Amino acid sequence: MSGNPALIMRLVASAYRVAEKAGAIVRKVLHSGELDIVEKTGANDLQTLADRLAQQSICASLSRRFPKVTIIGEEELPAVEVQEDLIENSQADEILQRSCPAEFSELREEELVVWVDPLDGTKEYTEASRCLHLQAVAQIPLTGSDTSLSHHTALWLLDNVTVLIGIAYGGRAIAGVINQPFYNYQLGAGATLGRTMWGVLGLGAFGFQLREVPSDRRIVTTTRSHSNKMVMDCVDAMEPHEVIRVGGAGNKIIQLVEGKASAYVFASPGCKKWDTCAPEAILHAVGGKLTDMYGNAYHYDANVKHMNSAGVLATLRNHENYISRVPQSVLHGLKSD
């Protein structure tokens, strides 16, 4: 560990461990079978006990170590004393040992904003739990050992679930952490569940192997449960060879950086800043780009509106080509920020 790591590296090192703890909370709640689901604005906007506990853990842990950092979480929760067993105090040594990019070496706590989505893909999480409960397997380890269709469907849904912690400076997403709580389930009994990836602009992104879709293929990933005519018109305009419909903004960016998709297209309001801050930072750290459907960057200052009103278009390469394909009818139907 370096003698005095820069603030941003210490914050990312803490966020890494906190995201791991949040992922463990998400798994524990699922195993308990007691999700305590609340509809926030409707059946497609849910909150579970896992959302609440994971956010309490993330926000309280980071606030304790970095009291002047602004932290904005998805869930509106009452101010309560957070149980000590939800607090994570450790940091990832492998991150502390990395050199900080020069442009971020002198940042101060009060200049940083952290955007938290404690459980991205809540709808898929609740559907998977329901499926597992119906199969009477909610209490067994989440592995691929059960060959029933329902069990495999449930486990695929859980692949959509991520924990997102994004860090912004000057309105720009500069660092991010993504935890996949149920990664590795397909390896069977004894496999260690979960993985965490992270990235910092100017340093790179880690925790996965970067791959790209072949240049002669256009594979679009888009929403699984929030589609509409504008979304589908825009997807069709990309003339994709394949369309992948999955849940969670974090999961869609993972599709890009692991070479399963070449563009993430969501031509509709719906995504919020906590959905895109961490994924954008990781994508940009490996040379990709995330904008609204007009090609404009989103800003992550503490006082911005939370909704990404003009949709999301993200790519690893050839961003301008995809932007040029967005239909005028879609642009007219969206409100530019």
From TrEMBL:
GO terms for molecular function: 3'(2'),5'-bisphosphate nucleotidase activity; inositol-1,4-bisphosphate 1-phosphatase activity; metal ion binding. Keywords: Acetylation, Hydrolase, Lithium, Magnesium, Metal-binding, Phosphoprotein. CDD domains: IPPase. The keyword Coiled coil does not apply. Its EC number is 3.1.3.57, 3.1.3.7. Mg(2+) binds at E74, D117, L119, D120, D275. It catalyses: 3'-phosphoadenylyl sulfate + H2O = adenosine 5'-phosphosulfate + phosphate; 1D-myo-inositol 1,4-bisphosphate + H2O = 1D-myo-inositol 4-phosphate + phosphate; 1D-myo-inositol 1,3,4-trisphosphate + H2O = 1D-myo-inositol 3,4-bisphosphate + phosphate; adenosine 3',5'-bisphosphate + H2O = AMP + phosphate. One of its GO terms (biological process) is phosphatidylinositol phosphate biosynthetic process. Transmembrane segments: none annotated. Its cofactor is Mg(2+). SUPFAM superfamilies: Carbohydrate phosphatase (SSF56655). PANTHER family: 3'(2'),5'-BISPHOSPHATE NUCLEOTIDASE 1. Belongs to the inositol monophosphatase superfamily. This is 3'(2'),5'-bisphosphate nucleotidase 1. It comes from Parambassis ranga (Indian glassy fish).
